[in-house]
Design goal:
The protein has 386 residues and is an all-alpha fold. Helix content is 78%, strand content 1%. A two-stranded antiparallel sheet has the order 1-2.
Length: 386
């Protein structure tokens, strides 16, 4: 008995022994190496990964509709899910190819128009600093001319042929996702080995799909309203390129925080370049800023509600990271990826602190976790005082 107690005491003493500093350092080094490898793969395989992420988003947008169509009946006939998936895939493929064809047909026009306005825009920006002296104006003009906008756009136009390859890859990914959807629940059950945990995992995936879908639908509506109002403002001021500015505003509003600022500045700059009237440009800037503020602060939160509780600082970090990794496409995909990461971290007990940091109010979710831990009590939300 005494010998057994001694063994227990030795084991307990070993458990209380602090971890060697070398082990902690080794773990940190392995983590840094793993992050570097993952980052390298993200950059090198970005064409495939961007296509995959877009395919997953398109699949999530249509999966609920396919499920509803698959359960509908026409008299005594029931539409099979396979037929609904084939029809949805055909619609997605037609839409993507039409969009790619429109972009390719307008690529040369866009390059020509931007090249035509680049030099006047650079001179117009330099003239805004004329009150500081001719030396400052010349220095600003020289700095602006170092940005070879036309050459950059020509390079993009030369790479536009890769869009068709991306569309084909996206359509293939979506088709295989539709095929895998029929067996997804069985795969989750066999993967986790526990039907309860499989249902929890499926609920997490459903939560990600629901929030991303709602974000994209609301963002499309809000961006459409903002683009239409920008078009109306440009038309009311009697300016050219009103349609182009409206489309640009619609597209850039999908980039949170940064996109609306860029769209407003570009529209005001276009107005100043066309007229040379500072008062008109400032008036247009004020009108567009008011439109962005009202839509962004009233309509956007009203429609989104609490479906998207993301930290503003976290969104900026996500934009910076994915812009550095995937370029412009990464900026459009930053928020959906961040939503998915936050929801997954919120349902894994060990990663929940990251979800708290990514959330706006520190309360990402209160559902059961995926690692078998008991559901947490709903934390007290912080009071916001004026």
């Amino acid at each position: 008995m005494i010998e057994g107690q001694d063994q227990v005491a030795r084991v307990a003493q070993g458990l209380r022994r602090p971890v060697a500093p070398g082990g902690t350092l080794q773990a940190w080094l392995l983590g840094i190496i793993a992050f570097a490898v993952i980052l390298f793969l993200l950059v090198q395989a970005r064409f495939i990964l961007i296509s995959l992420v877009i395919a997953i988003i398109l699949f999530s947008l249509t999966s609920d509709v396919i499920r509803w169509v698959g359960g509908a009946r026409i008299g005594r006939l029931r539409i099979p899910p396979v037929a609904a998936s084939v029809v949805a895939l055909g619609i997605i493929a037609g839409f993507l190819f039409a969009l790619a064809g429109l972009f390719l047909s307008q690529a040369n026009t866009v390059v020509t128009t931007v090249a035509q306005y680049t030099d006047p825009a650079q001179r117009a920006v330099a003239e805004l600093f004329s009150w500081m002296g001719e030396d400052v104006e010349a220095a600003v003009l020289l700095s602006m001319q170092q940005f070879r906008v036309a050459d950059y756009l020509r390079t993009l136009a030369g790479q536009a042929s890769g869009i068709l390859s991306g569309v084909v890859l996206i359509v293939l990914f979506v088709g295989f996702l539709f095929a895998e959807r029929l067996f997804f629940s069985a795969k989750l059950t066999n993967l986790f080995g526990d039907p309860a945990r499989a249902r929890q995992a499926e609920a997490v995936i459903g939560s990600i799909i629901h929030r991303v879908n709602r974000y994209l639908l609301v963002k499309t509506l809000v961006s459409g309203v903002t683009g239409a109002l920008a078009f109306a403002a440009m038309t009311a001021f009697g300016l050219e390129l009103a349609l182009a500015v409206g489309v640009l505003t619609f597209v850039l509003n999908f980039i949170p925080n940064v996109g609306s600022i860029v769209a407003t500045i570009v529209a005001a700059l276009v107005g100043y370049v066309q007229t040379g009237d500072t008062v008109l440009a400032l008036g247009l800037l004020a009108v567009l800023t008011a439109i962005q503020f009202v839509v962004g602060m009233v309509l956007d939160p009203l429609l989104l509600g609490r479906a998207l509780r993301l930290s503003s600082f976290g969104i900026l970090l996500s934009l910076a990271f994915w812009a550095a990794v995937w370029g412009v496409a990464g900026m459009f995909l930053a928020v959906p990826i961040m939503v998915a990461v936050m929801i997954v971290c919120a349902h894994v007990e060990g990663l929940r602190p990251f979800a708290v940091l990514l959330s706006r109010d520190g309360v990402p979710d209160t559902r059961p976790t995926l690692d078998g831990a008991a559901p947490q009590k709903a934390p007290v939300r912080p009071e916001v005082r004026a």
